């Protein structure tokens, strides 16, 4: 296990934006990946189940998953955003929970708290000025 891997590559060339998530949030970035690529925005989706394992990899592998040339990055976290700043950088965005205590099916809670594919798409487009 390497801690992070490319789940879906950008369509039509090198990625313009990288979407990163873990666990249940991967389905959100996969939906956003599809939407962005259909809009002609080259998005890469990365599943990152373990910061620690990813950090243990050599620089070549880390650069192959999260190329430093791609500064437009969106991370999605159904929890506090702690730890994600290292991977989105100063130009990136983190979509995370700002409040807790909601009780409903996951899709309902995610929608109510702004954890949606549409929110990921909006953040990516904002970063790219599109």
TrEMBL record:
<comment type="subunit">
    <text>Homodimer.</text>
</comment>
<keyword id="KW-0808">Transferase</keyword>
<dbReference type="Pfam" id="PF22613">
    <property type="entry name" value="Transketolase_C_1"/>
</dbReference>
<keyword id="KW-0786">Thiamine pyrophosphate</keyword>
<keyword id="KW-0479">Metal-binding</keyword>
<dbReference type="InterPro" id="IPR055152">
    <property type="entry name" value="Transketolase-like_C_2"/>
</dbReference>
<protein>
    <recommendedName>
        <fullName>transketolase</fullName>
        <ecNumber>2.2.1.1</ecNumber>
    </recommendedName>
</protein>
<dbReference type="GO" id="GO:0005829">
    <property type="term" value="C:cytosol"/>
</dbReference>
<dbReference type="InterPro" id="IPR033247">
    <property type="entry name" value="Transketolase_fam"/>
</dbReference>
<dbReference type="GO" id="GO:0006098">
    <property type="term" value="P:pentose-phosphate shunt"/>
</dbReference>
<dbReference type="GO" id="GO:0004802">
    <property type="term" value="F:transketolase activity"/>
</dbReference>
<dbReference type="InterPro" id="IPR009014">
    <property type="entry name" value="Transketo_C/PFOR_II"/>
</dbReference>
<keyword id="KW-0460">Magnesium</keyword>
<comment type="similarity">
    <text>Belongs to the transketolase family.</text>
</comment>
<feature type="domain" description="Transketolase-like C-terminal">
    <location>
        <begin position="3"/>
        <end position="116"/>
    </location>
</feature>
<dbReference type="GO" id="GO:0046872">
    <property type="term" value="F:metal ion binding"/>
</dbReference>
């Amino acid at each position: 296990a390497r801690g992070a891997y490319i789940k879906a590559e950008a369509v039509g060339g090198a990625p313009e934006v990288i979407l990163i998530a873990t666990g249940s949030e991967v389905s959100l970035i996969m939906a956003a990946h599809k939407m962005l690529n259909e809009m002609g925005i080259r998005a890469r989706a990365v599943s990152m189940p373990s910061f620690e394992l990813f950090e243990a990899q050599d620089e070549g592998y880390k650069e192959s998953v999260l190329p430093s040339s791609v500064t437009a990055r969106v991370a999605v976290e159904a929890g506090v955003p702690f730890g994600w700043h290292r991977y989105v950088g100063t130009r990136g965005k983190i979509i995370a929970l700002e409040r807790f205590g909601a009780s409903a099916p996951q899709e309902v809670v995610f929608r109510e708290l702004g954890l949606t594919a549409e929110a990921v798409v909006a953040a990516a487009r904002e970063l790219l000025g599109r």
